[in-house]
Design a protein that fits this description.
Structural class: alpha/beta
Number of domains: 1
CATH superfamily: NAD(P)-binding Rossmann-like Domain
GO molecular function: oxidoreductase activity
Protein name: SDR family oxidoreductase
Number of strands: 7
Organism: Sphingomonas chungangi
Largest sheet: 7 strands, parallel
Oligomer: single chain
CATH class: Alpha Beta
Keywords: Oxidoreductase
Distance between the termini: 32 Å
Strand order of the largest sheet: 3-2-1-4-5-6-7
Shape: globular
CATH topology: Rossmann fold
Family: Belongs to the short-chain dehydrogenases/reductases (SDR) family.
Length: 245
């Protein structure tokens, strides 16, 4: 239980990778707050599972495209948990379109949720996180390799997070806080189902020939959140089954 006594917030964690991250942190002893936008029932289920592990948990409704709600969710998590030690910027959206075809509304939504929201959440969380704290942002292996023009704009938003993370690590290193990015590969989730049209070409990229699982991302995040990763900061951990090898 390497995270006993730690308090974490995982954004966008009612299902998929976010829910697995929240569960992994709780399994290591952390109390966990999660945010969700619409899926109150699913968020409640995640909270129930965390509480069944003997940990404190709370779900906070917040639209990651809304700056005020993002800031309020940070304050709400810190209040509910009695402080904050770990922030996981997980909330994200996907829009498939080439540069020539992407609608401005979709472009703006990608920028608001995938880029602005993690920056705003981090800014707010730094008012609460002290020495030994962790900020972990979920990117994408598409930031390093673009298998289709349809993911180019989405990939650009995820690539922006790696630059932000490097600067952040330099800014907060003297405070004893680390900042890292985890880049999942193709993970079996509602957003990227194994029965979807992209399954075969994406599965074939991995050297072991399979999609990853949300729990495998959760394990990576739990490691970076622990004291075992205290000398790891400003870097990117790609968990993609060797797809970008």
């Amino acid at each position: 239980m390497v995270l006993t006594g730690k308090r974490a917030l995982v954004t966008g964690a009612s299902r998929g990778i976010g829910a697995a991250i929240a569960g992994a942190l709780a399994a290591e002893g952390a109390d966990v707050a999660i945010t969700y936008e619409k899926s109150a029932d699913l968020a409640g289920r995640v909270v129930g599972e965390i509480r069944s592990k003997g940990r404190n948990a709370v779900a906070i409704r917040a639209d990651s495209a809304d700056v005020a709600q993002v800031r309020a969710s940070i304050a709400g998590a810190a209040d509910a948990l009695g402080g904050l030690d770990i922030l996981v910027n997980n909330a994200g959206i996907l829009r498939l379109a080439g540069v020539a075809d992407i609608a401005i509304d979709d472009l703006q939504a990608l920028l608001d949720v995938n880029v602005r929201s993690p920056i705003v959440a981090t800014q707010a969380a730094l008012q609460h996180i002290g020495e030994g704290g962790r900020i972990i942002t979920i990117g994408s292996y598409f930031a390093d390799r673009i298998p289709s023009h349809l993911v180019g704009v989405y990939a650009a938003t995820k690539s922006a997070l790696t630059a932000f993370n490097k600067a952040l690590a330099r800014e907060i290193g003297s405070r004893g806080i680390t900042a890292n990015v985890v880049q999942p590969g193709s993970i079996a989730t509602d957003m990227n189902p194994t029965e979807g049209p992209f399954y075969e070409p994406l599965r074939a990229l991995a050297v072991n020939g399979r999609y990853g699982t949300p729990d495998e991302i959760g394990d990576a995040v739990a490691f970076l959140a622990s004291d075992r990763a205290r000398y790891i900061t400003g870097t990117t951990l790609t968990v993609d089954g060797g797809a970008n090898a």
